[in-house]
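Board notes (copied after class):
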Amino acid sequence: MSVYAEAATVKLDQIRRESLSGRHPDPSSSAAFRIWKEAKRSLCLGVGLLVVFGAVVFFCFLSLPEAQLSGKLSTFPPRSLEQLVYQRDLVVQYSEKHLAGVLSCLCLLYIFMQTFAIPGTLTLSLMAGALLGVPKGLALVSAISTVGSCNCYGVSLLLGTQLAGAIWPARLGHFRKEVDKRRTDLLSYIIFLRLTPILPNTFINVASPIVNVPLSSFAIGTVLGCIPNNFLAVNAGSKLKELRSLNELYDVKLMTIGAAVGVVAMLPIWLRRQDTSDTAGAAPIEKDS
């Protein structure tokens, strides 16, 4: 959201300078002014939603019994491995008595950060792995990351059209063309985008409703396509005390396992496409006259 605000301010300042200098803004500048006027209104509504949701998360943390974590977690998200391990130990120790409360706050915070594209969800995925282990942690992170992404999809559907069009006009146009070319198989395309670093996840979340990607394809593609990255983070969280460097989150062994998980996630789509190809290629059998 801050990126949007900064870009809008820069553009408005540019148009204001042109007006003060006596130069008549060209049509593109006038169109840009109207876009940014709409973007400013959407931005205010988005900030309002952020404040309300943030207040809910804040009061959830305040409701934790014997909540002594807030001061000790003041450096969240952690900036070093030492801080990460320290915070992990604090949360694990506290969760021995208050696991339900800790998980509720973790889920709310994760969804909040994912909804408004706030960095730091990797740390929460690590914490989920530390608290629950790999199978349960992966299931939880997959669920809440998908909910958060769908929330971002919804916010963008309501407020993001002008913002995205103003910030990413070229990229959004290219994405629209790519989506239009793959209308018959959007699920595979979304999974592919999630598995690869071609487009940032934030852009995919914001742009998908604008280019008319159905929510069903978006949600299922997010669940399946994000499994490898979620697995890597949760698995690393379950072994957090063994890590000597944050680079070990992505060592060769873990990357290989993550790639294998990605292949497994793609299998249903590949099998469906094969079945569709076989059906389409089968010649009709003519009856004897």
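Comment from the instructor: Residues 27-62 form the longest helix (36 residues). The two ends are 70 Å apart (CA to CA).
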